[in-house]
Write a structure and sequence with these properties.
By secondary structure, this protein is mainly α. The protein is built from 4 helices and no strands. The termini are far apart.
Length: about 140
C-alpha cells in the first residue's frame, strides 16, 4: 500500500459549484483509509497501533455514521500512539453530525501532519552498515 497525496484544500466554492471536492466519494474514503493504514504499517515496526481500515470502497457504497466513527478512531489511535502534531484538528464527534468540507479537510490534514512527522523521524535515523552484535574497532588515537 502506498501513500496517496491527500486533498486538504476543499472550499465553500467547491460546494457552491458542486465540484468533485464537494462530495465525499469512494475515492476519498479509499485514500483516507489507505493513508491511515499506510501510517499504521510504517509505525508498526516501531510503535504498535491496531486499527481496522476499509480500502475497498466503491461508488455504490455510502459511508455510515459507524464508518466515520471508525475512521476518526483510527486517526486518533495513530496520533495517540505516535505524537500529536502542531496543527492537528480535533475530530472527536464528527460521527454525530453531517460532515462538511472543513471536517473532511481536517481528517486528511491530520493524516498529512502525522505522515510529515513520521517522515522526519525516519529521516533522522542514523544510517549504519553495522549489524546487531557487530564488533567495531576504532583506530588508536595518536599522541603527539
Amino acid at each position: 500500500m502506498n501513500w496517496t497525496e491527500p486533498i486538504t484544500d476543499r472550499t465553500q466554492l467547491d460546494v457552491v459549484n458542486r465540484t468533485h471536492k464537494a462530495f465525499l466519494n469512494a475515492q476519498d474514503l479509499n485514500r483516507i483509509e489507505g493513508n491511515m493504514q499506510w501510517l499504521v504499517n510504517i509505525l508498526a515496526h516501531r510503535i504498535p497501533v491496531y486499527i481496522f481500515s476499509k480500502t475497498d470502497w466503491d461508488d455504490t457504497m455510502t459511508a455510515t455514521t459507524g464508518d466515520i466513527r471508525r475512521i476518526c478512531e483510527g486517526i486518533t489511535a495513530v496520533k495517540d500512539a505516535f505524537y500529536r502534531p502542531t496543527g492537528y484538528v480535533d475530530i472527536a464527534g464528527l460521527d454525530t453530525k453531517p460532515l462538511d468540507f472543513i471536517d473532511v479537510n481536517g481528517l486528511e490534514m491530520n493524516l498529512y501532519l502525522i505522515k510529515e512527522l513520521v517522515d522526519w523521524m525516519i529521516a533522522s535515523f542514523r544510517k549504519t552498515v553495522f549489524k546487531s552484535g557487530a564488533t567495531l574497532f576504532l583506530p588508536k588515537r595518536r599522541m603527539q
